[in-house]
Each structure stands twice: as C-alpha cells, then as structure tokens.
Design goal:
23 helices; alpha/beta; 568 residues
C-alpha cells in the first residue's frame, strides 16, 4: 500500500544576520592632521584629511548628466585621441617616445647630479646632452620651463614604456637614498584613499545605506563611532559629540537594522564627568547596544577613569568591543615618561626573587601605541588578582570603595571576571600567521585538547608572554579561561590565509566556536576589498553551519541582555 511521506518539519526561525563591526563616521569627524608622525617631510600639513575630503566632494558633486565633463573623463578622451593618432604614424611614434623619455630623465634627475659629480667623466656627457636639449628649443627661460613641464606631463600621460622606465629609475634612486616611504606610510596612504571613497559623504545615513545594500535582506549592523578628539592629530570639522548626536538620529530612523555602540575614552570622562551618564543614557534610553574602546588612541583599557564604567557594564552585561590590531590610527602626540613601564606587570631584575615594573622600550608612536592595544592588558580587568594590583597602583579611595577593596590579603567584594568583551579584529591577520608558524613554542600549542586552558598567565611568566606570545594565542587563551570573552574577525577577513585556522576554531572542540563573531570593518577595510566581495568570499569558504554561528547565533548571544531584550 502506497503511503504519503510525512511533511518535513518546519524550519526553526533563524536569527537575523548581524555584522558586528562597521563604521559610518564621515570625513568631518576625522582630525585633519591624521598623517602626523607618519607622513614624511611634514606632508601632514599639506595632505590633510580636510583637503582629501574636499577634493572628493568637489569631484563627485557634478550632476550625473554632466559626468562626461568630469576631469578624468576629459583626460581619458584626450588620451584616446592622441594615442589613436600616434598609432597611425608608427614611424614617428618611436622617435617621439625616445626623445620625450630622454628629456624627462634629464629634467627630473640632472639637477640632482649637478654639483655633486661635476668632475666625473661620465657626467660631462650627460651635461653636454642636457645643453643640447636646451638649445634645440631656442626658448627664453620662462617659456622653456613651461615647455619642460609639458614634456614631463606628456610622457606620463601618453608614453607607457617611458613612464614605466621613469618610475623604475625613481624607485631605485629613492631606495638607495632611503627616502622612499615605508610600508606603514603606504598603508596609511591606502587608508586615505579608503576614507576618500566613503567618508566624503556628509551624512552617516548615506554611508549606512551603502552598507545595507551589500548584505542579506534581514541584516543588522553594529555601528562603531570613533572619538579621535584626544589623539593629538589636530581638530576635526565636527567634534565627537556632534558625531554621536547624528548617530542617535540614525538609530531612531533605522531602529531595527542599526545597532550602534557608544565610544568611551577615559580622557573625555575625566574632562566631563557627565559623559559617564551620557553613555548610560545612550544604552538605556537611546537603545545603543554596547560600548566601544580604542586604546591605541593613547590610553590603557584599564585607565583609572574608565574602571567605574567597566564595572557598570559588567553588572549589566553590556558588551564592550575593543580595538585589538596593529594599524595606522593611533596616538599622534609625544610619548609620556610614565609610559616607559607597565603599571601592573613586572619583570625580573636578574637578582633572585627581585622584580621591577615591566619596561616598555618602544619609542615611535606606531610602536609604543601597541602597548595600549596589547591583549594582555585585559588581564587587569578580567583577573581579580591583577585587578586588585591595579587598584593598589592607583591607590584611589573612590575606586577602593567601588570595588570593595578591604586590604591586600582580602578578596574584592566586586570584580570584572564576568565582563562581556569582544576583541575586535582578533589580534590581526599577521598574529594569526605568527601563531601558525610557532610550532616550537610550548605555550602556543595544545589549545584544543579537552582540558587545555592556553597560556598560564602567572606573574613570573608575563614578561615572556608580553614580548613573545602571539596576540592570537593570548586572545585564544583569554577566551578559554573566561566564558564571556568574544572575538570578531573584522578586517582580517580580507586575507584568505586565515580561513583554514578559522574553520578549525569553529569546530565544537575548539571550545570558543560559540564566541566568534562576523564583522567586516566597513568602510575601513575598503582599502583591501569591498564588503560584498568579502562576504561572498566568506560564504564560499565556510559551511552553512559555520556561517550561522558567526553571523546569527553568536552575535545574538553577545549583543542582547536584560537591558536589550531580543526582538524579532
């Protein structure tokens, strides 16, 4: 007898898709001298953020019907006609290319060699050639200078082979003279371009709409503001409080899809104690979802003035997302004397049993700012023993009362071991690669065995962990030891090399698979890939179950608490 099969069970209603790390701040919120301490020759005062943003706003405000008149369109049209003409007369093209290339070399490099190598035999030939080219034109000095500018422009616009030769010689010369910008400067300039592509918009709403269109229809987005008013990089056109007001309006207009965090800089709390109440107001009444910190801007995540906020967040299970990757956005001021050693961690003096504060020898901004970002700092919040040492270092009666400090031998009445925090960027893709390479380090192996706790953060071993353990291994260990510690994979998703390790972390036996979050770092990551490309790459490399974990199930657990009940 033929039977009808049972109908399939209805699918369990899916949680919404949540991108846990995005940005919508505009160029008006960025300090204009962001290149300070990074761009060479004082260029930060010329190549300012304001200049970059103004250029893009001017460039893109041309009406669509006039797009063919945009500068690059005019230039493209001009190049096409000239190159088409030159292709029709090949017997003239080659001599023109040779003459333009030769003269451009003389124009750009003769002045450098003149006066330094006059007595060299080979220089006499170059000098004669230069005088010959000058005599050919038979023009007075002003017109001659103008003509030479046109010659260089013509070469770079029209003669590909000559342009490539000039660029090759320039790179070689700059490398010899050691004035070619280093990799960090190049990364910063790429960030400039990224800012130009998106931050030229005047409205956070416009940027948010561009983000929405790149993800599934049921998507929601954690929007992270940036308070850069204290990084000593000049002033922004609009200060952070104005950015925050605009973000509040964005939240009200997009109540289901926009899940903003509020920025917490201890220096702002110190200067304006009422800002503590503003943070709580944003979370309780404006329905913001959490707190954002960015220690690289010049403070420790356990700063004296941020500790009361961390305790309030812990008691109310408000998530705290902290920036944890080496990057180009960091404190631009001078290093302070008190930053030469760590407030809590110690190192051996070389004498038996004697210890001293951990020395921090970094001098450049990019190096010493990583001391604020270092994930080991969060032991001073999450570990009650290190928290107690921190309170003793500050020796502040109000903090003693707040945490119930009753003496060195007595436990704290309150601690932060249940603080819900997320390490943004999971330490950085370079730290993932470092972890995978270090098979000879005992402290960076064995994390996935059933009882493994990762690195043992005892006081006598902290110097070694600080200087030698990968940030990935430290974060992984903190996640194994503290059930409320999360990490997102924003920005690093652009690197396809992270996926084999990521897939192993999403297996249940990794014991942290339920606390890894999807994030893209929109629009900052645009210097590497577009969000839609990064999401497509991720969806193509992970299984449906793995995608459900990091984009739907884990974010829900991280973002919602008794203040913010989950709403479909």
């Amino acid at each position: 007898m033929k039977t009808t099969p049972d109908p399939p069970a209805p699918d369990k209603k899916r949680n919404p898709f949540i991108n846990c790390h995005t940005h919508t701040f505009t160029g008006d919120h960025i300090p204009q001298f962001l290149g300070k301490k990074l761009l060479p020759f004082g260029l930060e005062h010329i190549l300012t953020i304001r200049l970059i943003i103004s250029f893009f706003r001017w460039y893109y405000r041309v009406p669509t019907k006039w797009q063919y008149r945009r500068p690059y369109k005019v230039l493209e049209n001009f190049r096409f006609h000239i190159r088409w003409f030159l292709q029709k007369i090949p017997f003239i093209t080659v001599p023109i290319a040779v003459v333009l290339t030769l003269d451009t070399l003389l124009i750009l490099f003769f002045g450098y060699f003149e006066g330094k190598y006059n007595n060299e035999g080979w220089f006499e030939y170059i000098s004669s050639l230069n005088h010959l080219m000058q005599n050919i034109y038979l023009l007075p000095a002003p017109q001659y200078i103008f003509l030479r500018i046109l010659i260089v422009s013509a070469l770079f616009l029209l003669i590909k082979s000559g342009r490539q030769l000039i660029i090759f010689i320039a790179k070689s010369l700059f490398q010899i003279l050691r004035i070619l910008p280093g990799p960090e400067t190049k990364a910063y300039l790429k960030r400039y371009i990224s800012i130009g592509r998106f931050a030229f918009h005047k409205s956070q709403m416009t940027i948010f709409r561009m983000l929405e269109k790149q993800y599934p229809a049921d998507s929601r987005f954690v929007v992270l503001p940036m308070d850069m008013d204290y990084m000593d990089g000049g002033t922004a056109k609009f200060s952070y409080p104005l950015q925050l007001e605009e973000l509040k309006n964005l939240r009200r207009k997009k109540p289901r899809t926009c899940l903003p965090f509020v920025f917490a800089d201890p220096r702002r709390i110190k200067d304006n104690p009422a800002y503590f109440d503003e943070i709580k107001n944003c979370i309780i009444h404006e329905r913001f979802r959490g707190i954002k910190t960015y220690p690289a801007l010049g403070y420790y995540p356990f700063d004296r003035d941020i500790l009361p906020l961390m305790l309030w967040a812990c008691e109310n299970q408000v998530p705290v997302l902290n920036h944890c990757i080496r990057g180009t956005i960091y404190y631009r001021g001078s290093k302070k004397k008190e930053w030469n050693s760590h407030p809590v961690f110690t190192q051996s003096t070389g004498e038996k049993g004697k210890r001293e504060p951990l020395k921090l020898y970094e001098l450049s901004n990019s190096d010493f700012s990583t001391n604020f970002t270092h994930p080991l700092n969060y032991l001073c919040l999450l570990n009650k023993d290190y928290l107690k040492q921190l309170l003793e270092y500050y020796h502040d009666d109000s903090l003693y009362t707040l945490f119930g400090y009753a003496g060195r031998d007595q436990p704290l009445a309150k601690n932060l071991d249940a603080l819900k925090i997320c390490f943004g960027h999971f330490g950085g893709e370079d730290e993932w690669a470092k972890y995978m390479e270090r098979d000879r380090y005992l402290s960076e192996n064995g994390f996935t065995n059933p009882v493994g706790k990762g690195i043992n953060f005892i006081p006598t071993a902290l110097e070694n962990s600080w200087r030698h353990n990968s940030w990935f291994a430290i974060i992984y260990s903190l996640m194994l030891q503290h059930p409320n510690v999360y990490a997102d994979i924003s920005y690093i998703l652009h690197d396809e090399n992270i996926f084999p390790l990521l897939k192993s972390l999403l297996k249940k036996d990794s014991r942290i698979s339920d606390r890894i979050l999807y994030g893209s770092d929109f629009y900052v990551v645009r210097s590497q890939k577009s969000d839609k490309q990064m999401w497509a790459d991720t969806a193509g490399r992970l299984t449906d179950h793995e995608l459900e974990l990091i984009t739907r199930d884990n974010p829900k657990k991280f973002l919602y608490n008794h203040i913010h009940q989950y709403v479909e």
